[in-house]
Amino acid sequence: MKYVMFDFDGTLADSSGVFINAWNTYADQYDYEPVVKEDLVLTRNLTIQQRAKHFRFPMHKLPLILPKIYRYFKENVNEVKLFDGIKDMLDALSEKGYEITILSSNSKENIELFLKQEQITTVSQVLTSSKLFGKDTVIKRFLKQRQLSPEQLVYVGDEVRDIIACNKVHVPFMWVSWGLDGYEMIEKEQPKYVVHSPKELLNTLG
User: How confident is the model at residue 131 (pLDDT cuts 50, 70, 90)?
Assistant: First the structure.
């Protein structure tokens, strides 16, 4: 058995539109700047802390705001779509003998709703990290439960915080270029793989 673990938002799901709307819904209440889609492009190579400063986002209020944003996601999950080619890629990986899991900071309920909506049956398990920077703990637990060495798992994602988490537990990381963070942010963390399409991802994993 081969194992691949995916991030969700920005890797499998094109959820940026819903998150922008959710962000803007609470901008006045929590006194931070609203965003438009172009802002995501302009800030691709900023850290989370730099983005927070840029948009005057109160990071200390994140535990209050994030559940509201995920609730908004649930209510508007029908607006979230898979990136082109993702479903075929997941089907092909499953046929090649990969066990596919998801690890995300989004809620398990939201992800499972989306998988049902998109009729995806190839994902064996959905794991979540309640902390924005806590995925390494979940990955470590997964490896222990499955009795796997780090090299037996590949994590696929789009954000530098996920590479840092994987580096902590020595799990190979594959960065996808169609997500949130830009290559300038990613390069210094030296991901093992860099791919630019689901087809290239599939060919790289083999």
Answer: confident
